[in-house]
User: Which sequence fits this backbone?
């Protein structure tokens, strides 16, 4: 199989990572060599195999829905790259 | 008391308990040595002056019945530490200061240990050489031109160089055991569900586990005892009866059945690795173990499976880094442009590569062919181990297919870098515990490791086997302190 530049552009859009032409070419070549290696799995017949979704054979436990953390608003806001003290600020979305 | 930093964790704990050493003396010694070792680039963030304050406070009111009384410890920078910057080795988290503490580190501080700093690692733990870190590569104390392994490369380097008495790393595909093997140290990846993942920067959630990295098996067992706990904050944490690993440690492994999987004798494996494996088999026999040939037929499919499952989970986990609530942000013309530029400039090349692989294998039309296929093969790999464990108690393999490689040697070829994890990845896919112990040197004088893989929740058994073999192997690390001027 071969991943072309068009596919790379499509994945980059889905991934929300911008790529220019040069980077797209490098990624295409890297991904193709990785997928060549991954194709090995096609040697195996797996029609009747159950997929393994988790190795932890446990049922999800429930716990009381209680607030345990303190009010950390100030510290949490401080981590944001742009804020107006009360809210996270992002580029304008609605005209 | 001289040479504090040369003591093992267990010796330091005893000396503090017997009041022969204070926490301040011990902390100062490791801080001083770390100060002199900046060339190794093991630390991303130092917390030395806070550590010395905490040590003094400990000495003013010593709690000597704790398991790690006043012991200084640096940890991998993938563990969130409250009020101490946590970067995951990435530009995108360059200025992130968590408001909460990971459960594993909290368990450590609860037993009296003191944070001295955050250790370098591959970006988001994606790498096998510590070269993908935004904060630069780490040098292996064995030789300045060698990588320390990865992704827990700062951790392995810091333990081998004795900048911290012991540390913790994380292991998604070999990130504790491979760096331990490359630096002549001991590294344990516990059973999936043994140590809480709460507060660890997520890479691949069905594979990630935290574990100890130490100078010897005894210390490793002690730290495992501290970090392993059932945690309500991690939905995959498992409530099972945990051993007092260090207290129950025994060298008596007489009659234990140890399996040798023929599929681990891979093409192109250096003779030195095969010889080491043979030597390991002899050591195990000397300890009274019974050696049994076994087969793990799907071994060759483990790496391709891993390189679907891990990137798929990573692409989902790393979707949160969007430049809005924390971390790095690049300016953009609109919201989408801001996201795309932030992620393009904030993530390094390897992380972007893996996000792209993950996004592709999960994308419409490809999910069944890749992701579902990989989950099915993962089942076959786990079945192999289940079958083998009907006949044996543990499995012995080399830890890595080679000794530490040179800085820059594999950076241009992702697949050759991935092949490094060939012996460690199957263990993560099956959720089993595995330990790497130093077992010899190659002709260049670089350390080589052996891996012992156990049944799920059978950490005590592989620690015991490692403990018994460690005595027979009698490994001495060849470190000359070349970086201290």
Assistant:
């Amino acid at each position: 199989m071969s991943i072309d530049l068009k596919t790379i552009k499509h994945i980059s859009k889905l991934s929300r990572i911008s790529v220019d032409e040069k980077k797209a070419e490098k990624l295409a070549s890297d991904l193709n060599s990785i997928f060549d290696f991954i194709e090995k799995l096609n040697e195996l017949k797996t029609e009747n195999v159950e997929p393994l979704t988790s190795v932890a054979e446990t049922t999800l436990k429930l716990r009381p829905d209680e607030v345990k953390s303190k009010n950390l608003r100030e510290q949490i806001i401080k981590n944001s790259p742009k804020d107006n003290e009360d809210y996270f600020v992002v580029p304008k979305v609605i005209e | 008391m001289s040479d504090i930093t040369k003591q093992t964790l267990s010796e330091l704990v005893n000396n503090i308990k017997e009041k022969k050493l204070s926490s301040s003396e011990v902390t100062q010694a490791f801080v001083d040595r770390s100060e002199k070792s900046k060339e190794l680039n093991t630390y991303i963030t130092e917390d030395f002056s806070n550590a010395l304050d905490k040590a003094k406070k400990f000495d003013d009111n010593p709690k000597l019945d704790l398991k790690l009384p006043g012991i200084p410890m640096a940890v991998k920078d993938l563990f969130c530490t409250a009020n101490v910057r946590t970067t995951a080795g990435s530009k995108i988290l360059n200025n992130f200061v968590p408001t909460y503490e990971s459960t594993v580190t909290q368990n450590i501080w609860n037993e009296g240990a003191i944070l001295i700093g955050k250790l370098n690692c591959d970006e988001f733990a994606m790498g096998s050489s510590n070269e993908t870190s935004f904060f630069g590569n780490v040098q292996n104390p064995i030789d300045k031109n060698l990588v320390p392994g990865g992704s827990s490369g700062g951790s392995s380097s810091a333990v081998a160089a004795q900048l911290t008495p012991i540390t913790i790393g994380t292991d998604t595909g070999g990130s504790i055991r491979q760096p331990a093997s490359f630096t002549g140290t001991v590294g344990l990846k516990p059973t999936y569900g043994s140590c809480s993942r709460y507060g660890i920067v997520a890479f691949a959630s069905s594979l990630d586990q935290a574990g100890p990295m130490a100078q010897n098996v005894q210390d490793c067992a002690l730290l495992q005892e501290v970090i392993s706990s059932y945690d309500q904050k991690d939905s995959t944490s498992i409530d099972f009866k945990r051993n007092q690993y260090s207290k129950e440690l025994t060298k008596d492994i007489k009659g234990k059945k140890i399996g040798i999987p023929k599929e681990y004798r891979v093409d192109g494996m250096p003779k030195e690795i095969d010889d080491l494996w043979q030597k390991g088999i002899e050591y195990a026999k000397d300890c009274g173990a019974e050696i049994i040939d076994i087969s793990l037929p799907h071994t060759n499919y483990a790496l391709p499976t891993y390189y679907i499952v891990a990137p798929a989970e990573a692409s989902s986990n790393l979707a949160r880094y969007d430049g809005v609530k924390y971390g790095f942000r690049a300016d953009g013309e609109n919201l989408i442009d801001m996201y795309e530029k932030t992620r393009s400039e904030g993530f390094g090349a390897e992380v972007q590569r893996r996000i792209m692989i993950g996004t592709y294998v999960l994308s419409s039309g490809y999910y069944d062919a890749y992701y579902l296929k990989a989950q099915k093969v993962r089942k076959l790999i786990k079945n192999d181990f289940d079958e083998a464990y009907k006949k044996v108690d543990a499995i012995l393999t080399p830890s890595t297919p080679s000794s530490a490689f040179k800085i820059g040697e594999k950076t241009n070829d992702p697949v050759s870098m991935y092949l490094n994890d060939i012996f460690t990845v199957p263990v993560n896919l099956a959720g089993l515990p595995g330990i790497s112990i130093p077992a010899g040197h190659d002709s260049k004088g670089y350390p080589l490791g052996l891996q012992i893989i156990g049944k799920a929740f059978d950490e005590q058994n592989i620690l015991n086997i490692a403990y018994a073999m460690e005595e027979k192997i009698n490994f001495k690390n060849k470190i000359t302190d070349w970086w201290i001027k």
